[in-house]
Amino acid sequence: MDSANVKNDTNEAAIQNAAETRTNAGSAAAGINANAAPAQAVQKSHVDTGEMVARCRRVLPKALIFAISAVLLLYRNRTSAMYPVFMGISLGLLARDCKEAGRSLIRSAAGKPDIKLFYCVVLMLLSITKCVIISPDISWGSGLGILLIWTCLLLKVYADREGQEVTEQLAYMVQMLLVPLKHLELPFHDISVTRRSTAGEMSPGKKRARSILIGLLIAIPLIVVILALLSSADMIFGDLVQRILDCIELPELGADYFGVPFKLCVSFLAFYCWAGALGKESFRAPKEGKRFDAVIAITFNSIIAVIYLIFSGIQFVYLVGRMELPGGYTYAEYAHEGFYQLLAVTILNLMLVSFCKKHFGENIALKVILTIISLCTYVMIASSALRMFLYVGVYGLSHLRVYVLWLLVVLVVWTTLLTVGIYRQGIPFFRIITVFVSVWYLAFAFSVPDRWIAAYDLQLEVPPVDLAYEVYADATEVILEDGRYWADFRENNSYDVGRYRKRNALQRVRKFNFAEEAAMKLMIDN
Hints:
The protein is mostly helical. The protein is built from 23 helices and no strands. The chain is flat and about 85 Å long.
């Protein structure tokens, strides 16, 4: 009996000890799991902090250099030799940042030169047009080209995005331009985290540099006050100070005290956010869109194609065949009357073919009809060009007429690509158009259009009476050699000559433009 009780007590004790052991083990495991999440959070936070510090140290100096260079070289200075200098600095900063981030500015992942190298070359050439041509139209076109190519370069470098279709690439570019607005807090957050994490790591050299900078900032207002007082106290000293100030381009009250900080901040934020956030940005490609029944497109395109065929026949009869026009019409008036309408219809055709190709199902009949529309588009482009040539033959060249003829060549290439794309998939439309338009524009810009516009108009039997007011200073030499319009041309540019004469030494260097320099010397000497 006693032996049985002892045995039962022993069994109960063993069961209780086993339960306590399982409970303690479960508690320990639960404790480990409870502590695991905070530990992972701390580790993730540490990784994020390290990433912010690394990004700040990598991008901050380059963003500051980019912003300061933009203000010093480009502020109120869009057509000078400083532009290619700024572009060289910008591409150098990008190349350095790419190297530190494990990327390449000009090479693909396979190590071969790719489209990025072409973008860099085009950017440098576009910036050079800014200092060898003075025409505001060319300067505006080059500026727009720089913005578009720069955007494409950054997309390719940091996000590796390049759309096949033009619309797809434009969607990427719009998203990329919005990146700084989405990440305005990025540089400030990175700087704050970096300062906290490196608060006790400042070396004696950095402390000394910071102290010197503070001292300089304190000295600036004191120097202004002291120089003002001493200049008024001594005439000779005041004259010396005035000569020194005459060589310095001081900011203009009102505009510059707002414009300079604004440009500095915008340039800094743009570079920092692009370099720091583009790689992590999720770019959404445009949706393919719904595919509609091809019969719908066949129906309305068939009607349009018939109208275009009739119109094309009329172009051959009256413009090529030179049949007698209705009473009261001259060929110059007939040519000018419908040019811009034809240009609008041509662009509409290109959009129509692109839309049908993308949103309607594959169909042989539809392809044939779209091909007919494309062929009629060629006829309209040819008709537009012939009309413009007839008009120019009577009334001479102008900037608008030259730019329209330039655009017609672009439309020919675009139409050809679309026509081929009707039957062949996978054509990189955006890359082909970008390369062609870049090369075609650079050839046009470096030909100095104002010179040959003036040269063409001057050889007409009756040159345009407003020629002296229609061309810019790039045509100075041509106008001077002819002589008939020189007095009016020089008078029209008298304000620019007076402004050129007033430039101080620093302004002469900062605003130097090769074409302007040659033109001003001719106007001053003649």
